Amino acid sequence: MRATLTEDQLAIRDGIERLVAEKAGAAGAGELWSALSALGWLGLALPEDRGGSGRSVLEMGLLTAATGYHDLVTPFLSSMVLGAGVLARTTAGGESPELLAAAAQGRTLLALAHQEDGDFNPATLKTMASPHGRGWRLRGTKQAALGAPRAAYMAISACIRRGDEDIPALFLVPAATTGLQIRSIPTLRGEEAGEVRLDADLGPAALVLEGEAARSALDAAMDEAVIVLCWEALGAMCALVDQTVAYVKTRRQFGKAIAEFQVVQHRLAEMAVLCEESRAVAELAALKTQSSAPARARAASFAKVKMCRAARFISHEAVQLHGAIGITEDLPVARRFRHLLAFQAMLGTADAHLQRYARDVVATRRHVASAVFE
User: What distance in Å separates the CA atoms of residue 208 and residue 217, rounded to the nearest whole number?
Assistant: First the structure.
């Protein structure tokens, strides 16, 4: 399948690709971030009444595919997809609307601290929020919170005890809050993540969502982040294919370019086919975000599983076809290899997403009869 882009989407895609290509050869990610904010592309998927453009996940995917192709790492995933993405679904007043507008203008960085113990399952929250005076006391530890070391504000998930039940909740917390400690962790992808330790007292306004609304907002933001991450990986895979094709045309062995050997052509063809399959899966997943929550979750996990397998094959083949220099930092192929290695572990491994997809299939008895994927 191939998504049919509207004229507006084509214009956005072409504009983004030109801009990213220009900045890739100039000052890099810092200048790109400023240019994206000036053009209003940071808030692509934020509602218009929250300072955004009211676009969709597909447009965000087009942006990250371009940055992935040119090996530019920005805080877009951590700040605009995860942090702003979950806060945009809050109905509370307070600081959220102003923060979203500031994030869309590139003036403030946000982050989401949600995952615990490396577990992708959002139902296993151990961080607890208990009433304390007129506000709340937050205690727990979050792992691998992408972008947390540089964020000015974080959306933090926790459980609140209501009677005999623990219900999910979402808190908006300034990074400078006493009792909030962030240990910076460098990632293979190039952006910092953070281990967030919490023993903090918060005011009553810090609670922005609870119950099913909080669970729904967190699930939606995480699924959309997985899909946007897949688009970024798609860009990196396409770059590896292009770089490898160019290299094998110049590397000579036995008196001719190795691109003339049939076995090399077969490997390149398989890499190209996997890129096209990955593009189709990423497009489908982006379109499914407009559907029901279960369909969105299935599409996100399906895309992550499929693209992890493609990323592994393409990155390994690219290194092999470059020979010994494929593992050196002198070539972009090594950085893309590292990028795709990080992709396979971020926001849930292929195994974790396959288990989530399988649980849904069994629970809904979708395995009983053959059906078109939906």
Answer: 11
SS3 339: helix
pLDDT at residue 3, as a whole number: 63
The token duo for 88 is 């945009």
3-class SS of residue 5 = coil
pLDDT, tens only, 258-310: 999 999 999 999 999 999 999 999 999 999 999 999 999 999 999 999 999 99
CA nearest to 227, candidates 32, 3, 52, 48: 3
Exposed (0-12), middle (13-18) or buried (19+): which is 71, by Cβ within 10 Å?
middle
172: tokens are 């908006």
Spatial separation of the C-alpha atoms in residues 367 and 357, rounded to whole Å: 11
CATH of segment(s) 215-363: 1.20.140.10
Give the residue ranges of the chain where pLDDT is below 70.
Answer: 1-3, 25-28, 91-95, 118-123, 367, 369-374
Classify residue 218 as exposed, middle or buried by CB count within 10 Å of its CB (0-12, 13-18, 19+).
Answer: buried
pTM: 0.93
Identify the bridge partners of residue 170 per DSSP, sorted by sequence position: 157, 209
What residues does each domain of the chain span?
Answer: 7-72, 110-210, 215-363
Q: Return the pLDDT at 373.
A: 53
Q: Say what the pLDDT of residue 156 is.
A: 96
Q: What number of residues does the chain have?
A: 374
Task: Please report, to the nearest 10 degrees, the dihedral formed by the alpha carbons of residues 205, 210, 213, 215 taken in order.
Answer: 120
Classify 16 as helix, strand or coil.
helix
- Nearest C-alpha neighbor of 354 from the set 293, 305, 286, 318: 305
Q: What is the CATH number of domain 110-210?
A: 2.40.110.10
Q: Which residues contact 272 (CB under 8 A, 6 or more apart)?
A: 241
Rg value, the chain, Cα = 21
113-125 residue pLDDT tens: 998 875 566 567 8
